């Protein structure tokens, strides 16, 4: 019997790839841009494993073209790019990379919060535009973070990590999530209905997965409930926010600013109106991008592939129900 074949849809840190290659024949897509869907589709027929990224759409058609697949491992904690029910129906385990990126992503959510509150990108541009002529009492005044009210929507591992940072800033923390009021209180927050959170928060930070329920969770009615001095932070998924409604809210001054690590679509088009706004800070989906965390994510993704090839339960499996079957 030949060695298992695994396709890896992007270059990973060499240590992780080297370890994977000890267990199977590895083909790596070494281009900068993702492989096209059709290209992956054309490759999967003989594959035992697929290590993919959140930029790869993995659907039922692709799974049906891969009769020998034993594992699909996503290099991300989010897995909205994969049809999980289809994988479960076919008994294919799906791996993700939870945990290791919590603190790194929370650091970044807070960085966006601080940068938008204190207008750091605008201040940098101000100098580059030759506008720094003197110290001025009102120029580039922003919002205080210390003592402000933070609304957290979705209080999983990353939301809770953001809350820990907010406590250091003496913030009042309102939380809208599935956790009980007691659980939220233990984390230092107060459970709040969505409307209450939106109308009282100075900052609203999103930490929900993208699902049918959370698609455009923040749309025109929600933005209208926010304070005109409030700031929206999104490090979750772009489609949790309706981009057109956000553009209008930012342009009309219904909210003060937004800090977005994620957009709909990704990458954002260069002529997207959101890019014309000084009060919208957009960065290219990098919240988990520290050298150490990305290396750990690669190790976890490789661990999932190796376990799947060996017929073992994946260490971090999105659909563990497949192991409950007879
Ligand atoms: C990044 O967005 C991830 O889901 O890991």
Question: How is the largest sheet built, in terms of strand order?
Answer: 8-7-6-9-10-11-12
Spatial extent as radius of gyration: 22 Å
Number of strands: 12
Order of helices and strands: EHEHEHEHEHHEHEHEHEHEHEEH
What ranges have pLDDT less than 50 throughout 5 or more consecutive residues? Answer: none
What are the distinct ligands in this entry? glyoxylic acid
- The percentage of residues in β strands lies in 5-15%
SS element count, helices: 12
Number of domains: 2
Helix content: 25-40%
What report would you give on this structure?
With 326 residues, this protein is α/β, with parallel strands linked by helices. The chain has two domains: 5-98 and 291-324, 3-Layer(aba) Sandwich (Rossmann fold); 102-282, Rossmann fold. Helix content is 34%, strand content 14%. The protein has twelve helices and twelve strands. The chain has a seven-stranded parallel β-sheet, sandwiched between helices. The protein has a five-stranded parallel β-sheet with strand order 2-1-3-4-5. Strand 9, helix 10 and strand 10 form a beta-alpha-beta unit. Helix 1 (14-21) runs parallel beside helix 12 (291-309) and helix 5 (102-117) crosses helix 7. The longest helix has 19 residues, at 291-309. It starts with a strand and ends in a 17-residue tail after the last helix. Glyoxylic acid binds next to loops. Residues 54, 76-78, 101, 288 line the site of glyoxylic acid (GLV).
